[in-house]
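PROTEIN DESIGN WORKSHEET
SECTION A - STRUCTURE
LENGTH: 150
TOKENS:
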């Protein structure tokens, strides 16, 4: 049996996105299920040398992804397009989110925003941002029982 962490705000965020898309599409005269927006989940972690972001964006072509940095803000935009050759009325369920997404992350001052590596494999966009050399931890030897020379 697997333990799954429940995040109540994910459901609220998804509902808010759907309601916003419904009103946006209503005003534009589009069908409500063909285009909307979604928020891809992201994992962020770091080690001594780099900060890594992994975004789940399956079904999005590499040409439909845009990664940029401006004013210490990392921005990832993209779009998952709905297959137009299939008519909506033929679907029994539409649970996957389609449309555009936008995520922005404020970068810490300890990273080198000029050197970002991006890799897109199996629907996961992995961004690696190296830390500046001065931001990396340094090991300091402590002498025990000896007086410091003045």
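SECTION B - SEQUENCE
RESIDUE ASSIGNMENT:
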């Amino acid at each position: 049996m697997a333990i799954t962490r429940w995040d109540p705000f994910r459901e609220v965020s998804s509902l808010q996105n759907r309601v916003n898309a419904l009103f946006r599409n209503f005003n534009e005269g589009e069908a409500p299920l063909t285009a909307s927006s979604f928020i891809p989940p992201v994992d962020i972690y770091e080690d001594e040398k780099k900060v890594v972001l992994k975004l789940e964006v399956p079904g999005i072509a590499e040409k439909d992804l845009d990664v940029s940095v401006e004013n210490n803000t990392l921005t990832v935009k993209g779009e998952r397009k709905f297959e137009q050759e299939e008519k909506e009325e033929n679907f029994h369920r539409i649970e996957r989110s389609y449309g555009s997404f936008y995520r922005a992350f404020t970068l810490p001052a300890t990273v080198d925003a000029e050197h970002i590596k991006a890799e897109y494999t199996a629907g996961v966009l992995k961004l690696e941002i190296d830390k500046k050399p001065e931001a990396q931890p340094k090991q300091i030897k402590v002498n025990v029982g000896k007086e410091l020379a003045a």
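SECTION C - NOTES
The domain at 37-133 is CATH 2.60.40.790 (Immunoglobulin-like).
Residues 29-34 have pLDDT under 50 and may be disordered.
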